[in-house]
Specification:
The protein contains four helices and 16 strands. The chain is mainly beta. It has three domains: about 160 residues, Jelly Rolls (Sandwich), CATH 2.60.120; about 60 residues, Dockerin domain (Type 1 dockerin domain, Orthogonal Bundle), CATH 1.10.1330; about 50 residues, no CATH class. A hairpin with a 4-residue loop joins strand 9 and strand 10. Helix 1 runs antiparallel to helix 3. The longest helix has 12 residues.
Amino acid sequence: MHLFDNYRIFVLSLGMKKLFITIFFVSISFSQSDRSTIFNTGTPPDLGVGWDITCNQFEENNIGDINNDLGVDVLDVVSIVSFILGNAIPTAEETIISDINEDTNIDVLDVIILVGMILDGSNSTNLCQEGLSAAIKFTTFVEYTFEAFSVIFETGDLQGQGLFEIHLHQDNFNTPGDILGSWELTVGENTAREYYVFTGDSDCITLEPFASYWLSVNPKDNGDEALWLLSEEEFTYSTSNDMGVNWLETSTGQVGCMKIFGEQIFETDDSEPSLETVYDWSLEDINPNSDYYFPDYGETIGPSSYVEDQQVSVYYFGKAG
């Protein structure tokens, strides 16, 4: 097995006025045949230098603030549950405010959304209207499936649960275009570390050969702030001040540190397989329920063992097995 990369996570605990640093290195090895590093900006040379991913202007909205106290909390949940159970009758205004998903009904779905708003730190006055988003361009030269990515953030105290949103974009004339996939990322407070997100278990995104893509980091509605620590080397990037609705002119410079991982797709030709033995092997079958299990193991399983019976045994070890 060939090892292509060592994945390192480093965590730095930041004190209030004193800096106390504890670094943990965790190496995770991947098989090159399963996953390859498509793009890598490297690690940040300095702390405290990065793109400040956060909302800086919020849209006034009182949805969910049933008691009109300029916040969304458990008291609003109690009120909406009372409406649903019939223990209280909402006014016309309370009816509109309680219909959080705007389906003209006040029901358990509205409660679920309201609880989610509270848990992720959202507020009725905290709907993000403007905030810094940043995107980095990368290019693929063969066909891959998009498997994972990592980003390096530094945070201080968090107001909510540290939720940010990551988008994979198509390239649109050298700017971030249509979104191919989106993932929420939860960061810890008072840390600087690398966050690894595996996407292959939920999304099937193919990266075409000789095509460009963008990975962007965007703030959420909870007012949390994170520094996307900058790389030492320069790469192509773009930023947006309106949550990615409009992207500024593409530039080259230091960018937020990230890695892109993928699994290469191989195409086979239509030729028939040869009967000639190319490689043979001996497999120790440790499954007692297998037809090839013997106490002393060593059962030979390979093309030369089965070709006379027009059978070939194939063992594939991997996530697609």
